[in-house]
């Protein structure tokens, strides 16, 4: 039985499937990805009932509510692809025994590099 992933992000399902299978060393037929980005909550609830994993929405558009969490009976993990997770009902996940992970620190180096670059640009009057 393949892993079923619900993608709450705007990333096309084919790309999510490729990245997941590549990273985990799985075959295409071992992962099924469905896209629920920006759908009404009732439609999301219908589609996620047998999902194992949720990929969160880095745009914070599509919320993962209590009703969605409890509708997914096989849900084990919600992976947020960025730092924040304010659109996820973490309390409901805790009650349901669902792990929630984010990518804390994923952009630390690039933000630091940008800050230094902008400071140098200001010092050297590059913006003129």
Question: What secondary-structure arrangement, pairings included, does this model have?
Answer:
Elements: E1 3-7, H1 13-24, E2 31-35, H2 41-47, E3 53-55, H3 66-71, E4 77-79, H4 90-96, E5 99-101, H5 108-123
Parallel strand pairs: 1-2, 1-3, 3-4, 4-5
Verbal overview:
It is a single chain. With 128 residues, the chain is α/β, with parallel strands linked by helices. The protein has helices at 13-24, 41-47, 66-71, 90-96, 108-123; strands at 3-7, 31-35, 53-55, 77-79, 99-101. It has a 5-stranded parallel β-sheet with strand order 2-1-3-4-5, with helices on both faces. The longest helix has 16 residues, at 108-123.
Feature tags:
alpha/beta; elongated; five-stranded parallel sheet; 5 helices; 128 residues
Mean pLDDT: 92
Low-confidence segments: none
Beta fraction of the residues? Answer: 5-15%
Q: Provide the gyration radius in Å.
A: 18 Å
Give helix % range.
25-40%
Principal-axis shape:
elongated
Largest sheet: 5 strands, parallel
The H/E string reads: EHEHEHEHEH
Strand neighbour order, sheet with most strands: 2-1-3-4-5
Oligomeric status of the shown chains?
Answer: single chain
Number of β-strand runs: 5
The DSSP helix count reads 5
Distance between the termini: 60 Å
Derived from helix and strand composition plus strand pairing, the structural class reads: alpha/beta
């Amino acid at each position: 039985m393949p892993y079923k992933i619900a993608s709450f992000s705007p990333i096309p399902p084919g790309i999510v499937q490729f990245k997941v299978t590549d990273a985990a060393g799985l075959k295409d037929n071992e992962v099924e990805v469905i896209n629920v980005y920006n759908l009404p909550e009732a439609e999301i609830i219908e589609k996620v009932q047998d999902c194992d994993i949720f990929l969160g929405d880095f745009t914070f558009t599509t919320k993962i509510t209590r009703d969605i969490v409890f509708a997914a009976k096989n849900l084990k993990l919600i992976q947020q692809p960025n730092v924040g997770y304010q659109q996820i009902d973490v309390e409901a996940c805790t009650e349901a025994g669902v792990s929630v992970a984010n990518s804390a620190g994923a952009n630390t180096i690039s933000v630091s590099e940008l800050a230094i670059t902008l400071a140098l640009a200001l010092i050297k009057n590059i913006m003129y």
